[in-house]
Design brief:
By secondary structure, this protein is mainly beta. The chain is 11% helix and 32% strand. The protein has one domain (2-134).
Length: 149
């Protein structure tokens, strides 16, 4: 199934993830080798660190493990590794409560294991120039299918 969701990063805009760098800039061990997305502009803005890049990405998940965030075990890195071992191509955590990030806006979080697959389809915020370091968005949902003629 095709999904679209947001990704925030302090880096400059990009159209595809680099598998060699994926998750290394977030500071979260569970994000290495995984592309992470959210349905919340507030959460994406947090990871963009204010002036960073926010993009809407399209990706496919054919066999995701989909659970309510309240059912998730506390060790997210081990949980993601287990889902991958069980043959899932990603994880969807529904109704995540991000407390200070978006207290009134529970969101869905998507972990995509095929890091090279997601493609940026829209840029909401460009981010810094490549040499620098550093809207309202509907909830993530399956994207409409396009028919080929």
């Amino acid at each position: 199934m095709r999904y679209t969701a947001l990704h925030g990063s302090p880096s400059a805009a990009f159209t595809r993830f680099d598998p060699k760098r994926s998750g290394r800039t977030s500071g979260y061990a569970h994000a290495e080798g995984v592309a992470c997305f959210t349905s919340s502009i507030g959460v994406a803005s947090h990871y963009a660190e204010g002036e960073g890049f926010i993009g809407r990405f399209a990706f496919h998940l054919e066999n995701p493990l989909e659970i309510d965030d309240r059912e998730r075990p506390t060790g997210i890195a081990a949980f993601l590794a287990s889902a991958r071992t069980e043959g899932h191509d990603g994880v969807i955590l529904r109704a995540c409560d991000h407390d200070a990030l978006s207290p009134d806006e529970p969101s869905d979080i998507f972990f995509v294991f095929d890091v090279a697959a997601p493609v940026c389809v829209d840029t909401l915020q460009d981010g810094p120039a490549p040499s620098a370091r550093t809207a309202t968005v509907p909830a993530a949902r399956p994207a409409p299918r396009r028919h080929r003629h």
